[in-house]
Amino acid sequence: MTGAPVRTLLLWCPDWPVLAAEIVEGVPATGPVAVLHANRVVACSERARAEGVRRGLRKREAQGRCPRLTVVDHDPGRDARAFEPVVAAVEELAAGVEVVRPGACALAARGPSRYFGGEEAAAERIIEHVAQNCAVESQVGIADGVFAAGLAARAGRVVPPGGTPAFLTALPVEALGRPALTDLLRRLGVRTLGDFAALPAGDVLARFGFDGALAHRLAAGRDHRALAVRRPPADLAVTAEHDEPIDRVDAAAFAARALAERLHERLAAHGLACTRLGIEAVTAHGQELHRVWRHDGLLTAAAIADRVRWQLDGWLSGGTGRSGARPARPTSGIIRLRLVPDGVLARAGLQPGLWGETGEERERAHRALSRVQGILGPEAVVTAVLGGGRSPADQVRLVPWGDERLPARPGEPSLPARPGEPSLPARPGEPSLPARPGEPSLPAGPAGGPARSGRAAPTPPWPGRLPPPAPAVVLPSPLAAAVHDAAGEPVVVSARLQVSAPPVRLAVGTARPVEIVGWAGPWPVDERWWAPAEARRRARFQVCLADGTALLLAAEAGRWLVEAIYD
Amino acid sequence: MAGRMVVGSAALAGLVRPASAPDPAGGHRVLPVAPELTGLLPNRGLRRGSTIAVATGQPRRSGGTSLVLALLAEASRAGSWCAVVGVPTFGAGAAAEAGIALDRLALVPQPGPDWPTVVAALIDGVDVVVAAVPATVSASVANRLAARARQRGSVLVPYGRWDGADVTLQVIKGVWEGLGQGRGRLRRREVTVSARGRGAAARPKEIKVWLPGDGLTRVIPRPAAVPVASVTGRAAAGRLRPVPPAGRPALAAVPRRGGLALPGPV
Description:
By secondary structure, chain A is an alpha+beta fold. Chain A is 30% helix and 24% strand.
């Protein structure tokens, strides 16, 4: 290794995990806050430190020293995400930034110091810019090498060129950040980095191994590692400005088509493909309409143009939308269209099959279905995805054609018919399921789709769902019915699931009553009892009528409903 | 040829065949149906370009939807694309149980007044189009859709009242099994399906099938005169199997398909 260490400027944000928790989760960093990992304090706020909380304390101990301590879980991902704007702010002033860890980034000091006229001026400028853009306090240290710059940043110092070994000499060996080595050095009587650096390099290597030798080089101020400069992510969004406001949908779709071609070229140049696409339209009066479209395959230019048309159709023409939540009509034409690729992935995974027979049929079907979507609107053509759930309607989610096929609730569909009696009735009063339905634990993104079955994530069992055969007709909104016993009295199900009398006649709506020839039940379903607003308690019955029809009935809050028909 | 390769992948084996081999199923002109239903259809399958109507039974809710699912299942399993128009109550769970691939099944629950346009657009691109017939469909619209299906090579399955279909299937009777008085559960249904039509299908036919069947039933009880047949090995494959005739042992003595017996035309 030859040459002097690189003159390095290091920006350090004190207590970054605490600040990240404030930025992301809104935990005020001015109060006593501690970030814990594996029951040990990783970082704490200034207030907490004043009360005696230190790194490495146990949670109980830290709370003992500071009773009002707010405890936050350590999340490296959160730290890194929150740090991204800071790095971007630094990159606005200087090129070639290395993120040392969340909370600290380093760059070569030579460029900025010459540009801003001195190292102090550059440091001040960067601190100020970060404070203005991200509202984050930071300190800068400049020294030879990243290690020394990091230590200088803690002191907020600019070490003069060549003065780095002298600066390091007086620092304690703990600054190396290697607890085991530090402990050993202390017991050997080596207390400062200067003492350590004075040891002969060959002996240090022989006694402490390679890591010790590396620490020895750092202590001597010979930090030759070059900066691992990060590459800023490419900006893939494309924008089209229109001097003449567009107020017709077809004109907008036409403009979008050209824009889509540009987006495609740009993505292809990076070898990427996008599966989620944000379309943003801004009118002359500054109104904005943004929507993200998901897609299970590649979005072609034509597909993008279609989506722009659908999105703007309802907006510009006040449209005949079926979904009620349409935004209000804009007051002027569109002057800016922007396509923002969202779910970007490497294109290699999305190659069509080599023997493209199935692909051809798929293309054909896709064209036809897109055409129907053009006639009726995007939500009119759907495909069904089976997931978990206890009632036949819950297990199915209808996904607009072309969107990602993700189930509404995790769980396997009840396809494999298991021999033996079904595990049907959950015991009355027993909590149905600890898992929370309605929150798919599956990651979004088509890349996770095929691999899902191989994942170890346990699928919830949904006790209390009906065994096959599934009903062929599932009513979107249940029909009211009346069930009577032999004496003509209404049949009721008690809270303890006692049926008052065998059901004998069933009348659906206002139709004539039909005789019940076979019935089974009650099978209780007690869902979401922990959330009073969504709780549902039902008892289900299967009945067979004299005319050969079989129905799935539910008794809920004293009323009888026809949920599905075994057609 | 020296360069002949051995393709090991089972997936490819289904797609690639030597040029000398005969076209399977008459050049893909006939989409397969479950073996139990082949007897009802003139080409032993869904011939492309034909119109195969499924009439709603009497009473209205007695097996029509299950029959539609059974018709689609084998074709969908073989890779065809299907669409169902105008059935907002479609039970996707039952479709998956019947063997339909849901990712190749498009649903248009509410076509509204654009019904003919939507059905015509789907005929252009989808192999099997099931269309619930609205109350008012004029004969000219019906003829145009049938002609379009003939031209594009799709199978149109009108569900409801439809004149002029090549074959009209109808569920005459359905009897559920498995439900007692306060006990048991629905397990399977014995369904009598009739077929009448034009041309080759002019002679009316009638069969009995389990619809939906019970995957657990391996041995079908038969009248004493006929030897007991078992359906082992097909238990997982189909949810649909013929029902042995109850009162016609003489006709049922003709064995078909590995021991299964179908009653002849009635």
